[in-house]
């Protein structure tokens, strides 16, 4: 990369040749902290692989997920890369890379609750993460679920971990959340059979990398890197590692 492009490529930290990626470090299996405190996950590995191609170091910074666009605007971070769904509302604030993974919003309940469909949530309490795509979908398509739940208003959580604690305790009866998180989290619980994925009625969504609209060179390099990693089999390898199968 020429010096001029490198200066454009690195939005906030030109001297140390690194990009700063903001993430919610509880979002398994995309980006999360292991018991030893180290970050791991599909997005962590994918981002490192992309920037390795350009000799650029990656600094992952934990942020308040509900403030991610503000952190980007204030140049505290260069990228939002952590299961970040493309929505019309977000497109008004940020530029997106090409899509790199398909995701769904699903309803997770307890098996013993007998909640098997969205309509079974009538009068029940629903949890969602603040600032999540699930929260956006709930407002965008109220007839699908929001109009049925207690008070037509969900309980908001800082993390999905907190929502699962309340689901297990019976304080809420369902969580609207990302499928990739739900399936991984449930599979690693002591009793996976105690949970039910009750619905996938919401339309599919795409994960992409978010950045400032002025960062055109950065966007093109990320897109080129993602394309190359898919072509050489790296993407398939990482998907098998984190999802147990190759996704679309």
UniProtKB/TrEMBL annotation:
Keyword field contains Signal: yes
This protein's record includes keyword Methyltransferase: no
Pfam families xref list: SBP_bac_3
Keywords, alphabetical: Signal
InterPro entries named in the record: Solute-binding_3/MltF_N (IPR001638)
Start and end residues of each Solute-binding protein family 3/N-terminal domain: 18-246
Descriptive protein name: Arginine-binding extracellular protein ArtP
Organism expressing this protein natively: Lacticaseibacillus paracasei subsp. paracasei Lpp126
